[in-house]
Amino acid sequence: MNEVIKVYDIQSNSFRDINFSMNQTGFVLFNRSALSVFKCYYNICGFFYLDRIRSKIHLIDLNDCLIAIPEYSFIEIIDDCKSSLVEYNITERVDFRPSLGFICLYLQEKLDDISDYFTKLCYNIMQNNRLLNSFAKMNDSIIYPISEQELYAFAQNVFKLTHFDYISPDYDTSFKYTIDSLINGYHINFTKDDIEKYAYNISRLAYEKVAEYNG
What we know:
Blueprint: E1 6-9, E2 14-17, E3 27-31, H1 35-38, E4 42-45, E5 48-51, E6 57-59, E7 61-62, E8 66-70, H2 71-74, H3 79-85, H4 100-106, H5 117-127, H6 129-138, H7 148-162, H8 173-184, H9 192-214
Antiparallel strand pairs: 1-2, 3-8, 4-5, 5-6, 7-8
Helix pairs in contact: 5-6, 5-9, 7-8, 7-9
């Protein structure tokens, strides 16, 4: 890489050059648009990504604006991917607020008390070897959506992995039709609130399905 990757150090609340020694406590931050590069090399599932070659799990955090990767994990990223990510590296002060699920796993704490369905879904996938192996073979990612395009990909990839039930008599016709349209790629216009609503419900249905595997 021609440029030095900058790392955000929480303790000093500042950026520094990446540390290749054993004491790596910072986070490498990228603009969210770096997802297009990252997905060429890894499968992402919420707060973790999977190395397709070594099937090794690493932590990642995503929000509406940025991506965060622990410094020690970035060092292990495939060289071609590193080179492509340099231009997306955030090097100036930013409002970095890690998600609760990411922080719990980073600190090696359990997620038992977390109520968020998407976080619980991803955690169950990570803990279930059958689901994890299936996810590794998908060559797709499960990323909480913030746009229509991402919502369609989210619905299709989550359904491909979990085959959650959305045909139950308990759900109204409009709900079933919308989920079916997302899975099959039939175009519908969604507002920002719609995207959040259906992402939440898909996460809930999928979590309920995978919880059966572990229960």
